[in-house]
Amino acid sequence: MVKQNHGHILTVASMASFVTQGKNVSYACTKAAALSFHEGLAQELKHRYNAPKVRTTDKQSQNFCLEPETVSDAIVDQLYAGEGAQLILPCRFTFICGIRGFPSWFQELIRDALTSSRKSKDS
């Protein structure tokens, strides 16, 4: 791909890459690592290997089941678009990406609420 300066790399992560909650730490760590890898790879392809036409797309989804067709249709549409992107499914959760920019005390309140809601579901 680098030699031909053409291709598309897809990274599948999760909304957990943006917000970690209790009882989900190891999962969130792997998804945060996937997102970090994706971002770094995109930069290396563009600046180190001079291959800006090798596109990268990462797909984030909330921690509930989506219909496989919903996910696959969004991914295929993005691949055919020929542009790199960040897909967030369902789209109504796009705002979660911005949580990392909130003050740390506010992020902690959000994580507390998520962990508490997860506890009640586990009971």
TrEMBL record:
InterPro entries: NAD(P)-bd_dom_sf, Sc_DH/Rdtase_CS, SDR_fam. The keyword Oxidoreductase applies. Signal peptide: none annotated. Keywords: NADP, Oxidoreductase. It holds the Pfam family adh_short. The keyword NADP applies. GO terms for molecular function: oxidoreductase activity, acting on the CH-OH group of donors, NAD or NADP as acceptor. Belongs to the short-chain dehydrogenases/reductases (SDR) family. This is Uncharacterized protein.
